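User: Can you predict the 3D structure for this chain?
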Amino acid sequence: MIEDFLAAKPLYYDEIDYDRFPQIYNRVKSHFKLPKIIHLVGTNGKGTTGRFLAGALHNLSYKVGHFTSPHISKFNERIWLDGQDASDALLEVAHQRLLGILSKEDSDVLSYFEYTTLLGMIVFEDCEFVVLEAGLGGEFDATAVFDKILTLVTPIDRDHEDFLGKTIEAIAKTKLRAIKHTAIIAEQKNLEVYDVVENLAQERGLLIYKVEEMLSKDDKKLLLEISKELELAFYLEQNLALSIAALCCLGIAYEKESFKDSKLFGRLTRFRDNILIDVGHNSLAACSIMTQLSPNKYILIYNTYKDKDFKEILRILKPIIEHVEIIDIDGQRVASLDSLHKVLIDLEIEYTKYNKISKNNNYLIFGSFSVAQNFLREYNE
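Assistant: Here is the predicted structure, written as structure tokens:
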């Protein structure tokens, strides 16, 4: 069973072997039939941009797959095909087929994400388009081995610095080197990203457009109409703009109705009248949420991993926090309670342990996919 197989693989590594996946894929690539791939790299907004684009292509009657990660409630969320998450039965068939393609040694050594990437490409082989979201990287990400017709670059900021680099310039280089031919870049907060884009375009002869260059007046008008109809936060509207720019670049006509049912759960989603859920987990996400929700106040249900700059995240969110309620999450990467308590005390933010939701308060669930996952499980129980 695929669940047992993946459960035996670690989700995270202290070190990553960047040569392993390209070598394994090179041995088996003749078994894969690749659709037209639109690759997504960046720090924030990959999931929503990808779902807007995949949803529009589906509504325009294309056969399309969307590969995204991580998942919130169930693994199937990562592999979306023609408007719905892949079924257990479809994933199991693909799993058995993939085991038949790979040697036992290769299937055992592949990481959770690497194996899942190949699994997705088995499921998507009859698609016309695949919207393929990178994991934490770009150039060395498992998704980068495939040929692609277009790369979309969402906002780039600090995150996963142990793997990607300690500066915006280093992180941008790692992500942007995944571009093979043509790319569209979203509006960037960090201006250094534009310098990296210009240098790479010159060095490699790449075509890299800014999102605003791809949108006509009519596109911008439709963007605002769709955003209003979907009740999008400003940062989600920017992600929608990038997906529309992709359609324009591909020469695919669209209309307002093309984006119906294209929102992705967990991106400032109103779960209940008094509960918002966002799976953001870095300072760029915190800035976006702070801008959107201010001056309202929320009880923040929160936890974090030790590799995140949670002091900066909480500092950004402080003006909209009534107090913090810490929810338990699992894993070796979870920040110690002592370190989280110290940060909250230093920032003069009151905190307690999460217990239950009160109908009389407004809540923001934020911190990571694991925070959302554990909250939903406890809430439903």
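The chain is about 45% helix and 15% strand. The chain has a mean pLDDT of 92.
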